[in-house]
Design brief:
The structure holds 2 protein chains of 2 kinds. Chain A has helices at 5-9, 12-44, 49-64, 67-81, 88-114, 117-125, 130-160, 172-183, 187-215. By secondary structure, chain A is mainly α. Chain A has 9 helices and no strands. By secondary structure, chain B is α/β, with parallel strands linked by helices. Chain B has helices at residues 41-48, 73-79, 95-106, 111-124, 140-152, 170-184, 197-203, 221-226, 231-240; strands at residues 3-12, 15-25, 30-34, 56-61, 64-65, 80-83, 158-162, 189-193, 206-211, 214-219. A 6-stranded mixed sheet of chain B has the order 6-7-8-3-9-10, with helices on both faces. A 4-stranded antiparallel sheet of chain B has the order 2-1-4-5, covered by helices on one side. In chain B, helix 3 runs parallel beside helix 5. The chains are: A mainly alpha, B alpha/beta. The interface between A and B is medium-sized, with 23 and 27 residues.
Chain lengths: 221, 241
C-alpha cells in the first residue's frame, strides 16, 4: 500500500481555512448556544409549571431529532415557513446553537440542582433578589461543577460542526472532500482531516482542563 | 411589638408541625427557643422571616403582615437577619465579599463604604485578618462568626439564629456563643433556637419551650429553669442539664 500525503499538503492553505471555519462555527455556536442555555436552564427550574414545561419541551425536541435533520430543517424548511433568507453559515450557526443550547441547559440545570438549597436560603434571608441569587451565587458555583460536562458538550459540538459541510459550508470536512475530488486520493485527505480534528479536540480538552484548575481556587485549603 | 403571631399553623403536606402559635415579641427582647427535636423550633423561626409560608393565622413582623401579604417579604428579608446551622457562606466568594455582597447589591452601598463596614464587623467577631480568604479555609466556628458578620452587614432590626452551634465541634461552640452574648448587649432583638441550656439561661430575657407544635412554656429563664410548670419541660430540662 502506498500513501501520497505530499499531494494533500499542497492544499495547506485550504486546510488552514477549513480549520478556521470549523473553529469559527464552534465558537459562534458555543457562544449563542450558551447564551440560550442559561435562561433555558433557569426556566426549567421555575416554580411555574407551564414555564417549566416549555423548557423541557424545547430540550426534548432538540435532543429527540438528529442534528442533521435539524440542520436541514433550519436551512431548507425554515425559509419556506417564515419569510427569512439564511446564508449557509447563518443557518449552520443557528441550527448548531439551538441544538447545543438543549444539551448545555441540561448540564447547567444539573449544576443548579447540585448547589445546596441553603445557598439560596441564605441569599433570600439577606434580601438578595431571585435573579441576582441565580447569577451571582448559584450559577457561578454551578458552572464550576458542570465545567467538565460543558467541556464535553463543546467537544461534541466541535465534532458535530462537520455536519455543516453537507449543506455546503466550507469547513474542514468540506475541504477534505474537495481535496479528495481534486486529487482522486481517498485515504490520505481523510486521514489528514481526521488527525486535525483529533488535535483540535485534544487542544480543547487541554484548555478546559486548565480552566477547571483555575476555577478551583476557592476550594483549595 | 416587633413580632406578632396570632393562631399560626404550619403544615407540610399532611403533617402539622406548628399547631397553634401565639407570640408577641417586643423590641430588644432576647428569646431562646428550646425543645426536643421535631417540636417545630426551626420552623417557627423560618416562618418569622418568611422562608416558610404559614398555613393559617397571622404573622406581623416590624408591623408588616407577611402571612397574607407576600409582597412584604422583601422588606422583611432586608430587615431581619438569619444565621443558619450550617453557616451557608458563599464558597466562591472571599470572606469580605460574602459580607459586602448583600449591602452592595441590595442596598446599593458603594464598595468602599461596604468594605469599611465589613472590616468593622470582622473586627467585632475577632476575624479581622480573614477578610481575603475563602470560607473553606476557616474552621466551623470561624465560618459561623463570619455568617453572623454577614447578617449584621445588612443592619437588621432583628436577628434569628437557627441552632447556630449545633454543627460545630465542641471546642468551637464557646467562640460563637461569645459573639452572640456580645451582640445581646447592643440591644438588638434576637430569637435563638438552641440546645445550649447554660447559654440560653445566661443570655435570654425569655425562654420559649416548644413541644409537639405548641409553645408549652413562655417564661423568664430563672423561673423556667428552676421551676418549670409542665411535666414535659421538667423532663426536658432534666435530660439537658
Amino acid at each position: 500500500m502506498r500513501m501520497n500525503f505530499e499531494k494533500v499538503f499542497e492544499y495547506q492553505s485550504l486546510l488552514v481555512n477549513g480549520v478556521l471555519v470549523t473553529v469559527g462555527f464552534t465558537l459562534a455556536s458555543l457562544f449563542f448556544g450558551f447564551l440560550i442555555s442559561i435562561p433555558l436552564a433557569i426556566i426549567k427550574e421555575s416554580k411555574l409549571k407551564p414555564v417549566r414545561f416549555f423548557g423541557y419541551l424545547y430540550t426534548d425536541i432538540f435532543r429527540g431529532i438528529p442534528a442533521l435533520v435539524q440542520l436541514y430543517l433550519v436551512y431548507f424548511a425554515l425559509p419556506q415557513i417564515v419569510p427569512i433568507t439564511l446564508t449557509v453559515n447563518q443557518a449552520a450557526i443557528l441550527a448548531l446553537s439551538l441544538n447545543q443550547a438543549a444539551y448545555m441547559s441540561e448540564a447547567i440545570r444539573g449544576g443548579i440542582e447540585s448547589i445546596p438549597v441553603g445557598q439560596r436560603e441564605a441569599a433570600k434571608a439577606l434580601g438578595i433578589s431571585y435573579l441576582r441569587t441565580m447569577f451571582g451565587i448559584v450559577l457561578p458555583q454551578a458552572f464550576k461543577n458542570v465545567l467538565p460536562a460543558l467541556a464535553n458538550e463543546t467537544i461534541n459540538l466541535l465534532k458535530g460542526t462537520s455536519l455543516v459541510s453537507i449543506i455546503g459550508a466550507i469547513d474542514l470536512m468540506r475541504v477534505g472532500r474537495q481535496i479528495m475530488a481534486d486529487t482522486y486520493l481517498t485515504a490520505e485527505p481523510l486521514l489528514v482531516v481526521a488527525l486535525i480534528y483529533y488535535i483540535m479536540v485534544k487542544l480543547l480538552s487541554f484548555m478546559t482542563g486548565r480552566l477547571e484548575k483555575r476555577m478551583r481556587v476557592s476550594d483549595r485549603r | 411589638m416587633i413580632v406578632k403571631i396570632k393562631d399560626m399553623k404550619k403544615s407540610y403536606k399532611s403533617t402539622e408541625v406548628l399547631k397553634n402559635i401565639n407570640l408577641d415579641v417586643d423590641y430588644g427582647e432576647i428569646i431562646s427557643i428550646i425543645g426536643p427535636s421535631g417540636s417545630g423550633k426551626s420552623t417557627l423561626l423560618r416562618c418569622i422571616n418568611g422562608l416558610e409560608h404559614t398555613s393559617a393565622g397571622i404573622i406581623e413582623v416590624l408591623g408588616y403582615n407577611i402571612s397574607q401579604k407576600r409582597e412584604n417579604l422583601p422588606t422583611i428579608y432586608q430587615n431581619v437577619g438569619m444565621v443558619f446551622q450550617h453557616f451557608n457562606l458563599f464558597p466562591h466568594m472571599k470572606v469580605i465579599d460574602n459580607i459586602t455582597y448583600a449591602p452592595r447589591h441590595v442596598k446599593r452601598v458603594p464598595k468602599q463604604e461596604a468594605e469599611k463596614e465589613a472590616r468593622k464587623l470582622l473586627k467585632m467577631v475577632g476575624l479581622e485578618d480573614k477578610a481575603d480568604v475563602y470560607p473553606i479555609t476557616l474552621s466551623g466556628g470561624q465560618q459561623q462568626r463570619i455568617a453572623i458578620a454577614r447578617a449584621l452587614a445588612m443592619e437588621p432590626r432583628m436577628l434569628l439564629f437557627d441552632e447556630p452551634t449545633s454543627a460545630l465541634d465542641p471546642e468551637m461552640v464557646t467562640e460563637v456563643l461569645e459573639v452572640i452574648k456580645n451582640l445581646a448587649k447592643t440591644g438588638i432583638t434576637m430569637l435563638i433556637v438552641t440546645h445550649e441550656m447554660a447559654f440560653a439561661r445566661e443570655v435570654s430575657s425569655r425562654i420559649l419551650f416548644l413541644d409537639g407544635g405548641y409553645i408549652v412554656e413562655d417564661e423568664k429563664p430563672e423561673i423556667f429553669f428552676t421551676d418549670p410548670k409542665t411535666e414535659r419541660a421538667k423532663e426536658f430540662i432534666a435530660k439537658m442539664l
